[in-house]
TrEMBL record:
This is Leucine-responsive regulatory protein. Pfam families: AsnC_trans_reg, HTH_AsnC-type. InterPro entries: ArsR-like_HTH, AsnC-type_HTH_dom, Dimeric_a/b-barrel, Tscrpt_reg_AsnC-like, Tscrpt_reg_AsnC/Lrp_C, Tscrpt_reg_HTH_AsnC-type_CS, WH-like_DNA-bd_sf, WH_DNA-bd_sf. One of its GO terms (molecular function) is sequence-specific DNA binding. PROSITE patterns: HTH_ASNC_1 (PS00519), HTH_ASNC_2 (PS50956). Keywords: DNA-binding, Transcription, Transcription regulation. GO terms for cellular component: cytosol. PANTHER family: DNA-BINDING TRANSCRIPTIONAL ACTIVATOR DECR, LEUCINE-RESPONSIVE REGULATORY PROTEIN. The gene is lrp_4. The keyword RNA-binding does not apply. Residues 5-66 form the HTH asnC-type domain. Signal peptide: none annotated.
């Protein structure tokens, strides 16, 4: 389903990105509308696939997940069977927050959040025991300078 967005839709989406726990009344006031039209627009945005899910963001460090690694993976295998096995392994590992297939010299990049270096090594050992990988480079993030899920509407 294709959804056409107008300025009010974009304002609603901006407010939801900023804080999805806001009441419909708050959002309506901020976008210059009333509660029922805002509710109807949000429902249409959900039905149209623009809003995929609503969630909360947890503070990883406050919960003890102090290490963030970016894992660069090169593989010599590109068959469908290998890719399915690799994807299954990634989906089963809650440490993997993001996974991207890349163009260029590196085939995949993963964002992995763990408690410490030992936990990363356990993740790494489990991954390579499940899937054959040619080369893995792990980069430890020393400081997160910016992190957002907000799209520039």
């Amino acid at each position: 389903m294709s959804v056409r967005l107008d300025e009010i839709d974009r304002k609603i989406l901006g407010e939801l990105q900023r804080d999805a726990s806001q009441s419909l009344d708050e959002i309506a006031r901020k976008v210059g509308s009333s509660k029922t039209p805002v509710w109807n627009r949000i429902r249409k945005l959900k039905e149209g696939g623009i809003i995929r899910q609503q969630t909360v963001f947890l503070d990883a460090e406050a919960l003890g997940f102090e290490a963030c690694f970016f894992v660069l993976i090169r593989t010599s295998e590109h068959e469908a069977e290998w890719q399915q096995k690799f994807l299954k392994a990634l989906k089963e590992r809650p440490e993997v927050q993001e996974a991207h297939r890349l163009a260029g010299d590196i085939d995949y990049i993963l964002k992995v959040r763990v408690k410490n270096a030992r936990a990363y090594d356990e993740f790494y050992q489990a991954l390579i025991s499940e899937v054959r990988i040619y080369n893995v480079t792990a980069l430890l993030s020393m400081e997160e300078l910016k992190s957002t899920t907000m799209l520039p509407l």
